[in-house]
Design goal:
This is Arylformamidase. It is a single chain. The chain contains seven helices and eleven strands. It is of the alpha+beta class. The protein folds into two domains: about 45 residues, no CATH class; about 160 residues, Glucose Oxidase, domain 1 (3-Layer(bba) Sandwich), CATH 3.50.30.50. The chain has a seven-stranded mixed β-barrel with strand order 5-9-8-7-6-10-11. A two-stranded antiparallel sheet has the order 3-4. The relative contact order is 0.19. The structure holds 2-acetamido-2-deoxy-beta-D-glucopyranose (NAG) (3 copies). One 2-acetamido-2-deoxy-beta-D-glucopyranose binds next to loops.
Amino acid sequence: MTPLYTLTTTLLTLLITCSTSTADDAYPSPYTTTCDLNNIPTPIRSEVYDNGRIIDITHRYHPEMPSWGSDEGLGQFLRLPNSMKNGSRSNVSEMKLVTHTGTHVDAPGHMIDEYFDAGFDVDTLDLLVLNGPALLVDVPRDSNITAEVMKSLNIPKGVQRVLFRTLNTDRRLMWQKQFDTSYVGFLRDGAQWLKDNSDIKLVGIDYLSAAAFVDSVATHRVFFESRDIILVEGLKLDDVEAGIYSVHCLPLRLLGAEGSPIRCILIK
Ligand SMILES: *[C@@H]1O[C@H](CO)[C@@H](O)[C@H](O)[C@H]1NC(C)=O
Ligand SMILES: *[C@@H]1O[C@H](CO)[C@@H](O)[C@H](O)[C@H]1NC(C)=O
Ligand SMILES: *[C@@H]1O[C@H](CO)[C@@H](O)[C@H](O)[C@H]1NC(C)=O
């Protein structure tokens, strides 16, 4: 039999280390662990699965992740209109999210209005481009992605999917809530070079935009013009070796939307 004092000590410890849940705690920070008096284990959140064979390159959506143009981050994007604590039969959350939040995909309608009107939304994106062999490359850290940089990467012809890891990853920009305009992205001549001299159809990048902040619209338009290049932005490329993987990215089928959150994984 467990001596009573041990039980009491255990209970006391639990009471001291566990914070009681309030309405504001419905969506706790992903960085703090809470514990449960009912002996429910803490959920496991993983970056890799199957001993590292499957790598999640999607950022977790949370209030303190960066959001385009904001100093305050994404903010509380989930609410709980129905809650069991308030007598509902179940907890049902609702979300309000700019479609270009976190790890996301752009459709051609994002910056070419005629394409938006014509219906080139995320539901029309080619899943074959978003899924298949992919190359993860490191971009020289001293420059934005220009034609010269693209040339220097020596990406072989025939490679259709490339994830570009840049200074953004070293600077951990996707982990900082303040939006930073000095992120690295493509300049217009870099985008043009990619279009004219490579077979790349999937462009992945490690901050919220594939195009550098300066000249962002013009650079996006170079990518979107032919409607066969897909941009996946805000990827989590930390702690992944450069090389060849199988990439799998699936956007939501949002009819009429020019962007969508996307879940992307790499498989070794
Ligand atoms: C429960 O209802 C109260 C009053 O409407 C509200 O203030 C509170 O936020 C609700 N709690 C949750 C968890 O939804
Ligand atoms: C939702 O229901 C679960 C299960 O009963 C409960 O643990 C959780 O605290 C509830 N969340 C809210 C915010 O009421
Ligand atoms: C890339 O361009 C941005 C402006 O869009 C600039 O602030 C930044 O310093 C450039 N980064 C590098 C490494 O040249």
